[in-house]
Every structure is written in C-alpha cells, then in structure tokens.
Amino acid sequence: MNKIIKILHIEPSISSSREVEKTLAGMGYQVEYKRIETRNEIERIIPIFTPDVLISEFQLRGFDGNEVLERVSKVNKNLPVIFFTDAASTVKEKLELLKKGATYVLEKSKLDELELALFIALKTNNASDQAQKQNAIEWNVIRNVVKDAS
Question: Please, which contacts does 121-126 make with residues 24 or more away whose CB atoms are closer than 8 Å?
C-alpha cells in the first residue's frame, strides 16, 4: 500500500485505541492516526485533520453514535463512519445505524472484520470523491455553455 490512510478514532480508552491501531498496522496499512474522546472535538478536528475514515465506539461517555453521525454530517457528510458495538447489539440496531449514514457496523470482539469495514469505507469515500469531481466538471461545462450563449 502506498497511500497513507488518515483515521480519526473516537475512543475514550487509550488501550482500545492502541489495539485498533496495532490491528490496522498488522493488516499492512500505513496509517496516520488520531484519537479523540469528546463530542466537541468532532466538529473541530475533522476540518483540520481531514480523515479518510472515522472509527468510533457506538456508546461513548455522555453521547452515542447517533450524535456522532449528526456532528460528522455538519462538517463532512461524505466521511465514511465505522462503528464498533458490543456483542449485545441486535441486527435491527445495526441496520438502523446503517440507515442513518454509518458505513459499517461491527462488534468490537471481531477486529479481524475491520479490514473489510475499512475496504468498504475507502471505496465509499473514493466513489464520493469521484462523484464530486464529476459534478464539478458538469457545472463548469454548463457555466461555459451559458457564458458562450450570452
């Protein structure tokens, strides 16, 4: 892998964060990794750090994944979000998160599934970038046609 992947991780536990970082390195990813803990850091850090993917616990201190999705959408609605849940989460709960905008939801006990989640998240991010570039090209063409017609 050539590209460095920028990952923002919302995780109150340093040891859990290190475990995820170690897992990613073991998968062969070159990662620029930043850990945050609070809801207020989300909107402040995303524009500065510009992550490729956000990874978050679903249950955090004083807030949850629903608020994470709300705050992320305010600053980068195309940012892929991967959630960790506990084993007690139901399929219905996971499906609700996906409907609300999560890219992938996995149980924390299944860290080996993180590679699949990251692959999907990066593909999603790349497709979003391509769509934005295509829209920009189309708007430039329309603007030039209108300008030439006047």
Answer: 121/52, 121/53, 121/80, 121/81, 121/82, 122/5, 122/52, 122/53, 122/80, 124/80, 125/52, 125/53, 125/78, 125/79, 125/80
Containing H/E element for 115? helix 114-149
Q: 107 is written with which tokens?
A: 């149980």
Among 21, 5, 1, residue whose Cα is nearest residue 13: 21
Q: Which residues, in sequence order, are bridge partners of residue 31?
A: 5
Q: Give the span between the Cα atoms of 4 and 33, in whole angstroms.
A: 10
Query: Which has the closest alpha carbon to 103: 48, 134, 65, 64?
Result: 65
Domains of the chain: 4-149 (3.40.50.2300)
d(C-alpha 122, C-alpha 104), whole Å: 11
Helices (H) and strands (E) in the chain, counts: 5, 7
23-75: pLDDT as tens digits: 888 888 889 999 999 999 998 999 999 999 999 998 888 898 989 999 999 99
